């Protein structure tokens, strides 16, 4: 936790990954993020993976460091209360993050009618308002047709919801950017972050879209790294590593470490390629190169191979399961200062991640757990909306808040 955004108030009404991720990033940089939760929890409140007690590890991971107010959004009075909260006054307020539909009681137009300078950031499926999830957008964008083993007869979707995670990042970034402009001009903003646009623009930035326009579909490559030398290799003791040689220095180091200079020179002589100067040639002639490296690495155990590769400056890493990583990899989890062991909403204690960015020289604050549903209802109604305790009690008695 850092305090770069201390004093900023963001109201979040969102579920699943992209919206809550945006709120999480803002909260981890110090913003006060107030979740509007439906009474009893929204559609992702019990989403897997679950604890043995039925609490969602997913939900308490994505909502760390936030506050929660439970409102009955099925009733007009509850919806009015949500609008009032989103549009509450204050120079450092009027920031609303959501994945609710474009139209409706939480539309930008409806909120702007109450507060003209409000900034809304809305995560969407398709830009035209049609619903979508990361996995359906990914399928439409063609990525699963490039993923998986060569010759696979069906699409292969990735497990990681990349467009959702990128969506949360973009929503937080765009919101802070719009706030910067509001401080200069007084203008609000309506920000829309469709997953479909995130996929299309990202594939364009990477050159994938242009490649398909000019040359057609790439096709599956298995674990081969497109356009460079990279693949998984087995060691003598049954371990498997992923190894990459992109730069000339990496290539020289790899060839030297495995004592393959003569064999590689033979491939160059036969093909006319220059593997030091031409990264693409290493990919073009990978069928001739891979067997040489397979044989060399299969003759060594990982304990023998690792110091050779490290000493030569080769980029590589072992394959391991997530369970192996969280229990034994100090770089990722066990020794990573990003993590602090805290007691979560579920009552369980386990390491939780703080912000991914590190501010060099600045101490990290404590990681705060996700709230219990409605844990901050009274405080939010009192401090943000200025309601007296009697008025708060009346709302609770009517079942509008919990």
Describe the overall structure:
- This protein is elongated.
- With 402 residues, it is of the alpha/beta class.
- It contains 17 helices and eleven strands.
- The chain has two domains: 9-204 and 332-397, Crotonobetainyl-coa:carnitine coa-transferase, domain 1 (Rossmann fold, 3-Layer(aba) Sandwich); 229-318, formyl-coa transferase, domain 3 (2-Layer Sandwich).
Key features?
single chain; 402 residues; alpha/beta; Rossmann fold; formyl-coa transferase, domain 3; 2 domains; 6-stranded parallel beta sheet; 3-stranded antiparallel beta sheet; 17 helices; 11 strands; 40% helix; elongated
Summarize the structure.
By secondary structure, this protein is of the alpha/beta class. The chain is built from 17 helices and eleven strands.
Question: What ranges have pLDDT less than 50 throughout 5 or more consecutive residues?
Answer: none
Secondary-structure element pattern, one letter each: EHEHEHEHEHHEHHEEHHHHHEHHEEHH
Q: What's the CATH class label of the largest domain?
A: Alpha Beta
CATH superfamily of the largest domain: Crotonobetainyl-coa:carnitine coa-transferase, domain 1
CATH architecture label name of the largest domain: 3-Layer(aba) Sandwich
N- to C-terminal distance: 28 Å
The name of the CATH topology of the largest domain is: Rossmann fold
Amount of helix = 40-55%
- Strands of the widest sheet, in order across it, are 3-2-1-4-5-6
What's the story with the biggest beta sheet? 6 strands, parallel
Backbone shape? elongated
Report the strand count: 11
Domain module tally: 2
Number of helices: 17
- Proportion of strand residues: 5-15%
Give the structural class.
alpha/beta
